[in-house]
Specification:
The chain is an alpha/beta fold and about 525 residues long. Strand 20 and strand 21 form a beta hairpin. The chain is globular. The longest helix is centred in the N-terminal third of the chain and has 17 residues, at about 30-50. It contains 15 helices and 26 strands. It folds into 3 domains: about 5-305, Rossmann fold (3-Layer(aba) Sandwich); about 325-410, Luciferase, Domain 3 (Luciferase, domain 3); about 415-510, 2-Layer Sandwich (GMP Synthetase, Chain A, domain 3), CATH 3.30.300.30.
Length: about 525
């Protein structure tokens, strides 16, 4: 297997009748043979619409099994899959769909109302579900009569196959170009210690627009495992699915682990099938981690990474999870670089490597690092130096090869595993009449790790907190919207006009060892 398309091809030959995927929402299931046949039909249907080499095809819906047939079908033409975050506001979705130059959109019927609020350059729209007469073909109508022959379009492993969008430091999302080589490196090397094989039962419950959702799903299929797909991370459905299907592997963000532990019936659920749990995407408290280890009794793997690094690029192995023991301090670490990768800590100003224990920006290098940002050469060159080192924007330090996250260089907020850039929110706030200045910071939150606080200078004293939040909800995904607002006569700035975010954050983070929750 050298490309994304090879995954379904390979397992159709090796284990055609083995179950590849079950969707818990309606109990539909696919063997590996059926999965590949439907992917071939998708490929031929896409080709009939004019989709070809490196064209973009987009998906907008909650987790559905058709995401994977669409993904593999596109890959058979060497097209590029763009999964759009369904939690975004329509204006944000519109930007991603137009910026990606997607030719085709596969959209869930739940999100059809969003289309009326978008001005799209799309050529073709296909609807998942049975929405009635919309003027668009449904997925089933679109595939009807299509050939199951594999077009087997040649692909270079260095070509892009995924394009997921990250929030932008300047307020506009960036399309991360992930190659076949990036994915294969992650599956063969980075996640090797998780011991996936064809006997595994893989629970896929994180959103597919995240690398922790779609990437995790592809990892299980790559291994020939049985994948159990949830429409969304519903806590009771997760607890039902684990014993019902004998789940052995899953990935959770810390907020999901915390919510699972809070379920009143978790002590009655048989979790004994669970072998490996990966967790990451946001910091975790030691209390939640230790409680989860005790409850699940599984091997826990902490991973740190970004969309730009094809997910996890460091890993804290089970043997390094030692609560109460001599190595307990490692619970605050996210581990060592995975096989084939390097990391170093660099002074952000001088770009010189700092001594062990010194805090600086985390730089990463290896085969999982993205190709670049789509249609954004400047952002690519700013992020990846001439020697291939990717500048993460996160601050941390190294002790004996173990990475510890300390802060974030770029002011990013992580709330419930979602990356939120203040610039996006500040741009939206400044469009509201009555606001003369605005700053956005992350403040501690027991449930989500961090939550968004807006600090505003207003010229209209009648402007209320609810006015501001309502404005934000019309223009931004709800998870990005401020949950609290402070009014300030003048927001502090340095001589060059840059907001002093560190000073604004200080009162809320006093008494904490590090400036991430």
């Amino acid at each position: 297997m050298k490309t994304l398309a090879d995954i379904s091809r390979f397992h159709r030959q090796q284990r055609p009748d083995k179950r590849a995927m079950l969707f818990t929402d309606d109990n539909r299931q696919w063997s590996f043979k059926a999965l590949d046949i439907e992917a071939c039909q998708c490929a031929n249907a896409l080709e009939a619409l004019g989709v070809g080499n490196q064209d973009r095809i987009a998906y907008l819906d909650k987790n559905q099994p058709e995401y994977f047939t669409f993904l593999f079908g596109g890959a058979k033409l060497n097209a590029v899959s763009v999964a759009v975050n369904w939690r975004l506001a329509p204006t944000e979705m519109e930007y991603i769909l137009n910026h990606s130059e997607s030719k085709v959109l596969l959209i869930g019927e739940e999100f059809l109302p969003h289309l009326a609020e978008m001005n799209l350059d799309l050529e073709h729209i296909i609807v998942l579900g049975d929405p009635g007469d919309t003027g668009y073909l449904t997925y089933q109508q679109w595939l009807a009569g299509e050939s199951s022959e594999d077009p087997d379009y040649p692909a270079d492993p260095a070509d892009t196959c995924y394009q997921l969008y990250t929030s932008g430091t300047t307020g506009l999302p960036k399309g991360v170009e992930t190659t076949h080589n990036n994915l294969l490196a992650m599956m063969l090397g980075g996640l090797g210690p998780l011991e996936f094989d064809d006997t595994a039962v893989n629970l896929v419950c994180m959103p597919l627009f995240h690398i922790s959702g779609s990437g995790w799903g592809v990892v299980g299929l790559f291994a020939g495992a049985d994948s159990i797909l949830l429409k969304e991370p519903d806590m009771q459905e997760i607890l039902r699915a684990i014993p019902a299907y004998g789940v052995t592997h899953s990935v959770f963000v810390p907020a999901v682990l915390q919510f699972l532990l809070a379920q009143p019936n978790i002590g009655e659920v048989d979790l004994s099938s669970m072998k490996s749990i990966a967790y990451g995407a946001s910091p975790i408290t030691e209390q939640v981690l230790v409680s989860a280890m005790e409850m699940f009794g599984s091997n826990f793997f902490q991973v740190y990474g970004l969309t730009e690094s094809t997910g996890g690029i460091t890993m804290l192995l089970p043997q390094d999870h030692d609560p109460g023991g001599p190595r307990a301090h490692l619970l605050r670490s996210c581990g060592k670089a995975v096989v084939g990768h390097e990391l170093k800590i660099v002074d952000a100003d001088s770009e010189q490597e700092v001594a062990e224990g010194g805090v600086g920006e985390i730089w990463l290098k290896g085969p999982q690092i993205m190709r670049g940002y789509w249609r954004n050469e400047q952002a690519t060159s700013d992020s990846i130096d001439a020697d291939g080192w990717f500048k993460s924007g996160d601050a941390g330090y190294l002790l004996e090869g173990y990475l510890f996250i300390h802060d974030r260089v770029k002011d990013m907020i992580i709330s419930g595993g979602e990356n939120i850039y203040p610039a996006e929110i500040e741009n939206a706030l400044m469009k509201l009449e009555g606001i003369s200045d605005a700053a956005v910071i992350g403040v501690p939150d027991e449930r989500w790790g961090e939550t968004v606080k807006a600090i505003i200078t207003r010229v209209d004293e009648g402007l209320s907190e609810q006015d501001v939040i309502s404005h934000c909800r019309k223009n931004l995904a709800h998870y990005k919207c401020p949950t609290s607002i402070d009014w300030m006569q003048e927001i502090p700035r340095n001589p060059s006009g840059k907001i002093l975010k560190t000073e604004l954050r200080k009162p809320y983070w006093q008494g904490r060892e590090r400036n991430v929750s």
